Amino acid sequence: MPPPSPMPMPIQLLDAAPEPLCRKPDSAPPGLMLRRVLVLGTAACLALFGTHEMAEVLDGPLLNVPAIALLVLFALLFAWIALAFVSGVVGFIVLVRSGGERLLARGSAEDLKSRTALLMPIHNEQPAAVFGAISAMRESLRKAGAAASFDIFVLSDTTDPDAWVAEEAHYLAISRTGQGGPDLFYRRRRDNAGRKVGNIAEWVTRHGGAYENFVVLDADSIMTAEALITLAATMDRQPGVGLIQTLPVSVGGRTVLARLQQFAGRVHGALVATGADWWQGSEGNYYGHNAIIRTRAFAEAAGLPRLPGRKPFGGDILSHDFIEAAMLRRADWAVHMVPGLAGSYEEGPPTLIDSAIRDRRWCQGNIQHTALLTTAGFHPISRLHLLTGIGAYLTAPLWLAFLVGGIILAVQAHLSTPSYFPSGHVLFPEWPVVDPVRAKWMFLGTMLMLIVPKLLAAIAFLVNAHDRQRSGGGARVLLGVMLEIVITGLLAPVTMLTQARQVVSILLGRDAGWSAQSRSSDRVSWREAASRYWGHTVIGVVLASGFLVAPALALWMSPVILGLVLAIPLVVLTGSAAAGYALRNARLMLIPEETAPPHELSLTDAARARLAAEQLGPGEAIAQLAADEVLLELHCHMLPKRRARGIQAIDLPLATGLAKLDAVDELPTLLALLDRREKAALLADGRSVLRLVRLARGRRPEAADADAGLACLVKELQPA
Question: Which pTM does this prediction carry?
Answer without folding.
Answer: 0.88
